[in-house]
Inverse folding.
């Protein structure tokens, strides 16, 4: 069994995936637009992503631009968490992903002997960075 995140966007999925690919050193795979799909959608949706995956060093999630019949609301129930063992890598990743977003917890040493930080990125996705200092 494997659990995987599937992120929904409102027309800026490609932009967000480009940002994540650059920040996380990953690649966009299986990119499909609505262009050739037999779905009743406005013409403005045809170039949007119906499905894509981001794969790379320890990361794999899926994403798409929601169709007009799938209303999106931002929520705070789910966070993507990245666990690292390298302090410099944690600081660099925190800086890249949180740029232009909203910081909830600055990246700093916590009582469980780890660097930890939490933020919402510029696309409304919640993240946690946790780096074991042992």
């Amino acid at each position: 069994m494997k659990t995987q995140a599937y992120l929904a966007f409102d027309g800026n999925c490609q932009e967000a995936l480009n940002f994540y690919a650059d920040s996380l050193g990953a690649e966009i795979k299986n990119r499909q637009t609505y262009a050739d799909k037999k779905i009743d959608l406005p013409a403005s949706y045809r170039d949007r992503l119906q499905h894509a995956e981001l794969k790379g060093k320890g990361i794999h999630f899926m994403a798409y631009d929601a169709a007009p019949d799938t209303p999106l609301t931002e929520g705070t129930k789910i966070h993507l968490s990245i666990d690292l063992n390298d302090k410099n890598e944690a600081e660099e990743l925190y800086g890249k992903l949180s740029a232009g977003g909203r910081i909830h917890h600055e990246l700093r040493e916590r009582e469980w002997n780890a660097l930890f930080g939490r933020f919402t990125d510029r696309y409304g996705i919640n993240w946690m960075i946790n780096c074991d200092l042992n």
Q: What stands out?
A: The two ends are 30 Å apart (CA to CA). The chain has two helices and eight strands. The mean pLDDT is 93. The helical segments are 13-24, 87-98.
